[in-house]
């Protein structure tokens, strides 16, 4: 099964076993319902008997399992080949293959439930840390109320921001509620200055030669790619541990897991290994 987040693209590959005529692809919810893509041959790549398609998953696609079916004719014989896709509403912090490897699972029977475990584990890490570790695919404008978010030091006035993971298209404007916006991007320095080089997010905007508004209807509008520059290995490992833990809940009624080797083990609410991996990533005040 392929896992992909809504709003991102999934590379689908089918081994048809023959050169097909009239080949088309249809993608539908695995549980049944109307197709969300196709049937169409547009964008379908062919290399011998291998067929491929990059599915750009719409941002509003509902989370769940989908079946991508390649259909065509081998002479006069109908051929249909399926690829399973799990769409998460938001990006996952670890792959399904990595989870199955960590749990020593070799079949595909539990792929859909394991993918849901990965989604739940990823979002629980977001909630625990008070931030998210995925990056917007394109810049997004956010209006920030500067009240309580402005600090002053020897360098000047700083606006504290949510995590910023890419500043290539940064645009910063100031204005009043309902009024025009003034572009001040040329007066802005991002801080920490070496954050992105260290694969950490920018969390502050220093205004050179001026001060930030302090509230009272004044606002800042920041157009940038929000989030974390990359998914750290600590976050990936914590996700795998938590997803595995969720997958085993069906074998642990009332939080008790039985083992012939270890006897009865009670699963605690918070896994200490998960917390140890992400503890240094939790925003202050949330621990």
Describe the fold and architecture.
- The chain is an alpha+beta fold and 287 residues long.
- The protein has three domains: 2-89, Sandwich (Immunoglobulin-like); 113-134 and 231-287; 140-226.
- It contains four helices and 17 strands.
- The protein has helices at 96-102, 111-129, 233-247, 272-278, and strands at residues 2-5, 9-15, 21-29, 37-40, 45-47, 50-56, 64-74, 77-88, 140-144, 150-153, 156-176, 181-183, 188-191, 202-207, 218-226, 256-259, 263-266.
- Strands 9, 10, 11, 12, 13, 14 and 15 form a seven-stranded antiparallel sheet that branches. Strands 1-8-7-3-4 form a five-stranded mixed sheet. Strands 2-6-5 form a three-stranded antiparallel sheet, with no helix packed on it.
- Strand 3 and strand 4 (37-40) form a beta hairpin.
- Helix 2 packs across helix 3 and helix 3 (233-247) packs antiparallel against helix 4.
- The radius of gyration is 24 Å and the shape is globular.
- Residues 254-268 have low confidence and may be disordered.
Summarize the structure.
It is globular and about 75 Å long. Strand 11 (156-176) and strand 12 (181-183) form a beta hairpin. It has helices at 96-102, 111-129, 233-247, 272-278; strands at 2-5, 9-15, 21-29, 37-40, 45-47, 50-56, 64-74, 77-88, 140-144, 150-153, 156-176, 181-183, 188-191, 202-207, 218-226, 256-259, 263-266.
